[in-house]
Design a protein that fits this description.
heterodimer; A: 383 residues; alpha/beta; VC0802-like; 2 domains; 13 helices; elongated; B: 370 residues; Aspartate Aminotransferase, domain 2; five-stranded mixed beta sheet; globular
């Protein structure tokens, strides 16, 4: 009788001929998540099994597995030979001693000599004989003893399904570059794209000396938290202070943010293309701030050719906060460091910037030179 | 790096620390244990030494605490009832303790400040009535260096209401200015790490007959006024550091007066506005780079090798310094506040260099943001 962790896929089973590819990437991601813990990872049909691990590491393994995208659910259970006595011994281990229960069998091996119903009745009956305080309730049982009869002569016996992170294995949906600030939204946006299988790289714009190192440290911490969800553990930063100064000095004040965002998008696209990323990702939510109106978005999009994914565009703030809390980035995001200095914030930013006016104002700047300078300020942090 | 934020904390005195460490390593017994006599007497000597520095040991006693903040909190929280009068220039440890009392139903009265950060004496006295339980006035304002005449104030307060407790936060005065506590002052808070001691030690001086209440209860240490095993290392270090600091108090004072004037003289008058009073503590000089942001300036100055303090943060969410605001300054001054504070180790060369660094940084920032 061996303790195992049974991992079930999310949407991979929907993939036809590409299924093998998705399963392989999923396996690699699981191995990466379990790095540093002694274990064996076995692939069986429609499942991965973690076996041969130290029992005291069970909780840690479950925690790490629960954050791997592509995991639909997982269970801690027992792997035994599929003869009736062995299955029953395992069922005794996972079944509570009192309360309502039912036995539920799934047979991958259709040649097994008993049907699922017969197995349910047999194992259930023996459990009732041995534990008189148990009662059967097939509709709303407090506990379910699950029997999974596999084709290789083994049975998996477990009691509970734990929900996994869902989504697709990271790496199966290409690479994107997340524009990460120190706020609540962008880490959530990165999480959501990683969940859909995207390899998410991180780019942060700072404005030293107008912003301080505390802000940068905060973003590093956010990146570290996101790396638990297979988001890149590398953070690229660029300094846009001089760009802000030039905009502030030469352009209409109400366009400060609009113009800065156009520079950020250009710089991000350049960085993305260098690293082979196929899109930009932002945490924008429609109408949340002045620059996130459809006009603001249009103005930013106009300077790039890569698609810009905005997974939070239709989210309310409280919906974003809920996810941020769930993934553990909220507490860090609300630490009091500013990612933008108020020196450059106009009293009345343009809510609906007209593209022609924006482009006219931008002509006052040496865009190429400012871009070059910002790109030269590049720093890369491994977290 | 030239360090000019000594009012925040200053370098520990190595010699004092070594002596304290040596004693603490060899004498690790609990001073309150029956067998801990030697440690207990070392603590007693430290207590007597610190007491005699600013008070008559016949009239005053001393309770060791974990620092200035705890000393202030013990004074404010245990003495405040009905109504409490604070100067608007109090350190956060006093002010927030007052707000805490206010949240519990005590009336909090704030006495307004002069332009230099000292309290308006008449206004303060007018707030005191027969129901006032406590008055607290900072001795040296930690943000402007203004020195309040706490002894006159204490006498006047007692004249008006003899039962009213008078407390003063002396953290920026202790070991820096000549102080002799008068019996009108009931409580006086001090801290070790501002004068070469290590962090985590302070003391509350109390008038001997004054019935102080504990903030922390437990094993009954410090005459039942501050429970918790005594920080032997920190307390001895505090006493050793104070011994040295007080020995050179007068010479430090006259030297720093000169350095402060030198720095002030070296600053570009078109950029920097003086906030500190001319006759304020020689240990501290507060200026404002009008129209610029103190926090940004601080970083540029640091790039030039000088660490200074700041009075504001580059953030729309953080308010300006509560104290400088209470001095009556507008936003353009509040934004640009810088606090320069010295130690006896600060040199003429450092101060001259710092003046250049400040000027150059301010000019650079002006040029960058127009």
């Amino acid at each position: 009788m061996e303790k195992v962790i049974i991992i079930r896929y999310a949407e991979i089973h929907l993939k036809g001929k590409n299924r093998g590819y998705f399963e392989r990437v999923f396996g690699v991601n699981l191995e990466r998540a379990l790095k540093g813990i002694r274990h064996e990872l076995h692939r069986t049909s429609g499942r991965y099994l973690v076996a041969n691990f130290d029992e005291e590491k069970t909780e840690e393994i479950c925690g790490r597995v629960s954050r791997v995208f592509g995991v639909h659910s997982y269970s801690v259970g027992l792997c035994v030979p599929y003869d009736l006595d062995s299955v029953y011994e395992a069922a005794k281990e996972v079944c509570p001693r009192e309360g309502t229960f039912k036995v539920e069998t799934h047979r991958a091996d259709k040649k097994y000599p008993m049907t699922s119903m017969e197995l349910n009745a047999h194992i259930g009956g023996r459990l009732l004989d041995d534990f008189p305080a148990l009662r059967v309730d097939v509709h709303t049982p407090a506990h379910t003893v699950c029997l999974d009869i596999r084709e290789n002569g083994t049975a998996l016996v477990f009691g509970k399904f734990e929900k996994g992170a869902g989504g697709m294995p990271v790496g199966t949906s290409g690479k994107g570059l997340l524009l990460i600030s120190g706020g609540i939204d962008s880490p959530v946006a990165g999480y959501m794209m990683a969940k859909r299988g995207m390899n998410v790289e991180l780019l942060h714009f700072h404005s030293y000396p107008y912003t301080n190192d505390g802000a940068k440290e905060k973003v590093k911490e956010l990146a570290r938290l996101l790396s638990r969800y297979s988001v890149s553990a590398k953070l690229i930063t660029l300094n846009v202070a001089h760009i802000q100064e030039q905009i502030h000095a030469k352009c209409a004040a109400e366009l400060n943010v609009t113009l800065l965002r156009r520079f950020m998008f250009r710089l991000a696209e350049k960085t993305a293309k260098e690293m082979g990323a196929k899109c930009l990702i932002t945490g924008e939510s429609l109408g949340q701030v002045a620059s996130q109106t459809i006009e603001g978005i249009t103005s930013s999009n106009a300077v790039v050719t890569l698609p810009v994914l905005r997974p939070l565009i239709g989210f309310d703030k409280d919906e974003i906060v809920l996810v941020a809390k769930k993934i553990g980035t909220f507490e860090t995001s609300v630490l009091p460091y500013e990612d933008c200095c108020t020196v450059f914030l106009p009293d009345f930013p343009a809510i609906k910037p007209k593209l022609s006016f924006v482009e006219e104002e931008e002509k006052k700047l040496d865009v190429e030179a400012l871009m070059r300078e910002a790109l030269e300020s590049r720093e890369v942090f491994s977290l | 790096m030239i360090y000019l934020d000594n009012a925040a904390t200053t370098a520990p005195d190595g010699e004092a620390l070594a002596r304290a460490v040596q004693f603490a390593e060899q004498n690790y017994l609990n001073p309150s244990a029956l067998y801990g006599g030697e440690v207990f007497s070392a603590l007693s000597s430290a207590r007597e030494s610190l007491l005699s520095k600013i008070a008559d040991p016949a009239q005053f006693a001393l309770v060791f605490t974990s620092g200035g903040t705890e000393a202030d909190n013990q004074a404010i929280q245990t003495c405040g009832r009905r109504n409490v009068v604070l100067s608007a220039g109090e350190h956060a440890a006093v002010y927030e303790a007052g707000v805490h009392l206010k949240n519990g139903g005590t009336e909090l009265r704030l006495a307004p400040l002069e332009r230099d950060g000292s309290v308006k004496a008449d206004a303060l006295l007018s707030l005191v009535d027969e129901k006032t339980s406590l008055v607290s006035v900072v001795h040296v304002n930690n943000e402007t260096g203004a020195v309040n005449d706490i002894f006159t104030l204490a006498r006047e307060v007692k004249k008006k209401n003899p039962r009213c407790v008078f407390h003063s936060d002396g953290v920026q005065a202790f070991g820096k200015l000549p102080v002799r506590l008068s019996p009108d002052v009931d409580l006086y808070s001090v801290s070790a790490h501002k004068i070469g001691g290590i962090k985590g030690v302070g003391a509350l001086y109390k008038r001997k007959n004054f019935a102080l209440q504990p903030l922390l209860c437990g094993g009954g240490q410090e005459g039942n006024l501050r429970s918790g095993t005594e920080n032997v290392l920190g307390i001895l270090d505090f006493a050793f550091a104070a011994e040295k600091k007080f020995a050179s108090l007068e010479t430090d004072l006259s030297r720093l007066k000169e350095l402060r004037a030198l720095l002030l003289g070296g600053l570009d008058k078109d950029v920097f506005t003086l906030i500190s009073p001319e006759n304020g503590s020689p240990y501290l000089l507060t200026v404002s780079a009008r129209g610029l942001r103190g926090e940004i300036l601080q970083r540029l100055i640091m790039e030039r090798g000088v660490i200074v303090g700041t009075g504001s943060a580059c953030s729309s969410k953080k308010p300006h310094s509560r104290v400088i605001e209470a001095c009556g300054y507008g936003k353009d001054v509040l934004d640009g506040v810088l606090r320069l504070s010295f130690s006896p180790h600060t040199t003429r060369e450092e101060v001259a260099f710092a003046a250049h660094a400040l000027n150059d940084s301010a000019h650079e920032l002006k040029a960058r943001i127009g």
